[in-house]
Amino acid sequence: MFIPDRMYDTVYDIPKEYFTENGIKYLFVDIDNTLVPYENKTPTKENLVWFGKLKELGITLLLVSNNGEERAKEYAQELGYKYKADMKKPLIKRYKAFMRENGADKDNSMAIGDQIFTDIASAKRIGMKAILVKPIKDKESAFFKFKRIMEKPFLAIYKSREKRRNKTKREGKI
Ligand SMILES: [Mg+2]
Questions:
Q1: Residue 171, pLDDT score
Q2: How many whole angstroms separate alpha carbon 52 and alpha carbon 68?
Q3: How far, in Å, is the centroid of ligand 1 from the Cα of 146?
Q4: Containing domain of residue 112, as a range?
Q5: Cβ count within 10 A of residue 111
Q6: What is the per-residue pLDDT across 2-15, written as a single tens digit (0 to 9) for each?
Q7: I want to staple 83 with a disulfide (CB 3.0 to 4.6 A). Which of 3, 16, 48, 76 is the partner?
Q8: Is residue 144 part of a domain?
Q9: HEC profile for 91-154?
Q10: pTM to 2 decimals?
């Protein structure tokens, strides 16, 4: 439940093949520290270019934030992106409702976020693939630092799996 399927430094590093080969039509993306730091109220140019690429791939972007309505709305509204605030990740009730509203299901959806215990956990509970990216800017609070420390064992499991995956690939088993 706490192990991402893939890890990348930023959303821009995710190869488009990872979406196309998995038949992804809906991408559920966290806002804070995944797309922009907390203090950015609106999407950056880089965000917009990436959103455009997703559209070209036929992927619908759906923003999912644990932050409040005002924050999510301000980020999403300018360009009319669909969003849901107060998601309460890792809880999945609102998440599932949002998926249903948009005709998405776990097999054609993927989640991207910067936090294991909210973004990754919620996606895995629903049963969809999940990508962890590095947080753009960590809040310097003790609580956040504590969370990052708690994530470490799960990151270690991911890394050993990735090693095995790469080894198998090299040996030509896939
Ligand atoms: Mg976040």
A1: 76
A2: 25
A3: 15
A4: 6-139
A5: 27
A6: 999 999 999 999 99
A7: 76
A8: no
A9: CCHHHHHHHHHCCCCHHHEEEEECCHHHHHHHHHHHCCEEEEECCCCCCCCHHHHHHHHHHHHH
A10: 0.89
**Paired tokens of 146:** 């504590």
Beta strand pairing call for 82-84 and 129-133: unpaired
**114 Cα–ligand 1 center, Å:** 5
152 domain-assigned: no
Tell whether 157 is covered by a domain: no
- The residue written with tokens 């064992």 in the block is 153
> How many domains is the chain built from?
1
Whether residue 148 lies inside any domain: the answer is: no
Residue 72: other Cβ atoms inside 10 A? 22
Cβ(24)–Cβ(59) below 8 Å: yes
d(CA 158, CA 160): 6
Q: How far, in Å, from the CA of 43 to the mean position of ligand 1? A: 14
